[in-house]
């Protein structure tokens, strides 16, 4: 069995998990501070995940190990779980079932968890929510489960869209409650983005993209509407703060978890 061992955990390197799947990994496991990716053959890897090493090991049930190590995650009013943990949501919370796979966003990373918590702190009743860079669909689905009238998840990666739709179906979220489409802000390629502004915009992207899209966030929000941004390394916070100030956002707050930050703000009235 061919194993690629990468320093880190599912939590610290969630952004790199999809790169392993895309490179041909047949399974992932976290053990003793390392991510172990199983491959049928040695393959070239992108530089972001080139800091590991290859090893040959005896065959084992990697899928069983992966399932054993992926635990439910409490995120405010929701507990994010894999399908095989669907009955293990914490008391007083609602399960949000996400199938781990190629799309970013299993809920085990601090950025996803903080954004889900932030959505849970808002009154989403009757609100339309836009999830930019939806990945697995976790944040749009969370919004629907938390009472949003409608959530639209968009992503430039076409691979993510059927995965997000499947996750929505697993959670009993109908297309009338949450839709997922390929695209992004500022391109004019999605009529759904231009029909009316949204009550809430949430985006789990890196800081440089938040800087580029800050004007689009404002354009797609109702006056006074909340903006929830994550995927931000704490060292990049000032870039995001400056972008929000440039676009006239108010009430900026920051929440940190280790190296990662969540920023919330509101569009000016």
From TrEMBL:
Top enzyme category: transferase
GO MF, any single term: methyltransferase activity
UniProt xrefs under SUPFAM superfamilies: S-adenosyl-L-methionine-dependent methyltransferases
Enzyme Commission no: 2.1.1.-
GO biological process: methylation
Catalytic activity: L-lysyl-[protein] + 3 S-adenosyl-L-methionine = N(6),N(6),N(6)-trimethyl-L-lysyl-[protein] + 3 S-adenosyl-L-homocysteine + 3 H(+)
Binding site for S-adenosyl-L-methionine: 112, 133, 155, 204
GO CC terms of this entry: ribosome
CDD domains reported for this sequence: AdoMet_MTases
InterPro entries: Ribosomal_L11_MeTrfase_PrmA (IPR050078), Ribosomal_PrmA_MeTrfase (IPR004498), SAM-dependent_MTases_sf (IPR029063)
Record key words, sorted: Cytoplasm, Methyltransferase, Ribonucleoprotein, Ribosomal protein, S-adenosyl-L-methionine, Transferase
Pfam families membership: PrmA
Localization: Cytoplasm
Function: Methylates ribosomal protein L11.
Family listed: Belongs to the methyltransferase superfamily. PrmA family.
Protein name (Swiss-Prot/TrEMBL): Ribosomal protein L11 methyltransferase
């Amino acid at each position: 069995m061919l194993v690629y061992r990468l320093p880190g955990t599912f939590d610290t390197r969630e952004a790199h998990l999809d790169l392993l799947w895309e490179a041909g990994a047949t399974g992932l496991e976290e053990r003793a501070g390392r991510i172990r990716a199983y491959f049928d053959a040695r393959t070239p890897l992108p530089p972001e995940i080139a800091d590991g090493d290859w090893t040959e090991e005896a065959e084992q049930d990697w899928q069983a190990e992966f399932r054993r190590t992926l635990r439910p995650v409490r995120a405010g009013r929701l507990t994010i779980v894999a399908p095989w943990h669907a009955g293990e949501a914490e008391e007083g919370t609602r399960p949000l079932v996400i199938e781990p796979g190629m799309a970013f966003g299993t809920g085990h990373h601090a950025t996803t968890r903080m954004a889900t918590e932030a959505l849970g702190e808002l009154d989403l009743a009757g609100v339309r929510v836009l999830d930019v860079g939806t990945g697995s669909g976790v944040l749009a689905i969370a919004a629907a489960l938390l009472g949003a009238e409608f959530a639209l998840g968009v992503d430039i990666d076409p691979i993510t869209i059927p995965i997000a739709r499947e996750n929505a179906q697993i959670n009993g979220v109908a297309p009338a409650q949450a839709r997922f489409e390929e695209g992004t802000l500022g391109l004019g390629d999605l009529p759904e983005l231009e029909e009316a502004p949204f009550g809430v915009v949430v985006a789990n992207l890196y800081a440089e993209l938040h800087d580029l899209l800050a004007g689009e966030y404002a354009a797609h929000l109702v006056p006074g509407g909340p903006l929830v941004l994550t995927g931000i390394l704490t060292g990049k916070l000032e870039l995001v703060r400056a972008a929000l100030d440039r676009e006239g956002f108010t009430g900026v707050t920051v929440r940190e978890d280790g190296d990662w930050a969540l920023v919330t703000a509101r569009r000016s009235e």
